[in-house]
UniProtKB/TrEMBL annotation:
Pathway: Amino-acid biosynthesis; L-leucine biosynthesis; L-leucine from 3-methyl-2-oxobutanoate: step 4/4; Amino-acid biosynthesis; L-isoleucine biosynthesis; L-isoleucine from 2-oxobutanoate: step 4/4; Amino-acid biosynthesis; L-valine biosynthesis; L-valine from pyruvate: step 4/4. InterPro entries: Aminotrans_IV, Aminotrans_IV_CS, Aminotransferase-like, B_amino_transI, BCAT-like_C, BCAT-like_N, Class-IV_PLP-Dep_Aminotrnsfr. This is Branched-chain-amino-acid aminotransferase. GO terms for molecular function: branched-chain-amino-acid transaminase activity. The keyword Acetylation does not apply. NCBIfam families: ilvE_I, PRK06606.1. Acts on leucine, isoleucine and valine. It comes from Sutcliffiella rhizosphaerae. Gene3D superfamilies: 3.30.470.10, D-amino Acid Aminotransferase, subunit A, domain 2 (3.20.10.10). Its cofactor is pyridoxal 5'-phosphate. The keyword Transmembrane helix does not apply. Coiled coil: none annotated.
Amino acid sequence: MEYAYFDGRFIPITDAVISVKNKTFNYGLGALEGIRGYWNQEDQNLYLFRLEDHFQRLLNSCKVLFITIPYTVKELCEITVELMKKNNVKRDIYIRPIAFINLPSLRPNLYKTEYGLTIFIEEVGYVEKPTVNAMISSWLRIDNSTIPPTVKSIAGYLNSALAYSQAVAQGQDEAIFVTREGNISEASTNNIFIVKQGDIITPPLSDSILEGITRNTIMQIAKQVNGHNVKVRSIPKSEIYFAEEVFMTGTAVEVLPVSAIDKRQIGNGNSGPITSMLQKKYLQIVRGEDKKYESFLTAVYP
Ligand code: PMP
């Protein structure tokens, strides 16, 4: 039987349901996370990647949204490890925590209401292709004066969904947002990096991005892979078309090379050398094959 954590208890996933009256369902009020677990066959262990960082981001999101769930990062990590054990997980998985609200009133109030927390398991199976074709979306990225993009809010995903759905409708694999100023922000659910004359460049927080944990991991390993620090600076929209390499990063897609944007081929249309090196290193780290980065991993089994 598969279990979910739901409001303080481990219960069968089929019983983890919310009412149609729930205002997270009605209005999209809440915060979420997305975490990966990687099964290491040799070690016979499940490694949860940067678990504490994901839960710290969840608590930060909750703080901005006025949601006060009564858990510390440590408790959230312990609950998640317990959930993995209860489900005897021995494969790659995706973990979805959601902080939601149980608001009786019709008013969209987040302040001092009743909150709930659930954590459940999703299957991975997200990336269909080794490289993707992307388009610049006609939808602009949400910004800090509307829906804060640095917060992983449920409602913020409407912006992602509009852009991603537009891309799918136009036969593309991914959508890239620009800001109101015309700078590259991020993809629908991934951060963006470009490579230019050997420099690895990624947009700053002020260009309306989610501060991705994969983005941060890549920034930490880039120096080791190509000997340079990642440059954090705005990327004007036109610059991305003539980048030597473009790749996306995210918990689900890991490191995903981009082969074309708006029908302009990037590099030779395949994964570039720096992207491939970073991807290789990232995949070793998350699976626990590079013990230098062990501190990123939470081992589920003793
Ligand atoms: N941007 C958005 C909008 C996202 O939804 C995600 C996925 N969480 C990311 C970037 C990548 O973040 P992370 O590397 O932490 O998964």
